[in-house]
Amino acid sequence: MTQHAREAVGSTFDPARMQHARRQSWAALQGIRQRMRPGISEDEAKAEAAKVFAELGMERLWHPVIIRIGPNTIKTYRQPSAPDVRLGQDDIYFIDLGLVFDGHEGDVGDTFTVGHAPAQQACAQAARDLHRDVADAWHTRGLSGQALYNYADARAEAMGWRFNHAIKGHRVSDFPHAIHKGGDLGDFEHRPGEGLWILEIQISHPTEPFGAFYEDLLIHAAS
Length: 223
Description:
The protein is α+β, with helices and mostly antiparallel strands. The chain has helices at residues 15-35, 42-56, 118-141, 145-159, and strands at residues 60-69, 91-101, 104-114, 162-163, 170-171, 197-204, 211-217.
């Protein structure tokens, strides 16, 4: 079903199950969002997340739960959070989930605010808007993975945000996708196939210590 070795899948791969994993992952993210409240720490939020996963019948994590609050929202995936950060009354946070349902990998992320935080809210919305813009470019222009991230960088700058170049997207598949060594979407020289790649976007404010993150599966009928 794919043209390139980096888009290899396992014998049990099923696009419908990929969509199921995506939907369940988004449901989990919204369930965690409902449990976020001023004063909560990142570790406490992860404990709440585990309860949501159990309710949804998640099989396992394929990457650790990432919940970043306030100044930690400018951290990349592999950077540890500054300790003892708690959600303020007027604040920003993001959730990044890598969950397995029915043997297939979901990977979703979004950013939210609490209280009165207009600059942070604008940043969160900008990450969603940029993701939609880049996904539309994939759909309508057939850009390669490399071209998609070059486009994302230029659009982020035009929008007035700093683009995180360390975030380049990646493969998903039937678990575990890592055996196929698909690498980063931002290094893929071909047009990415549908339902196989996660487009990740991370931006930050040009001068203030906060940022936003959004990710979702590249599909033609995103909803």
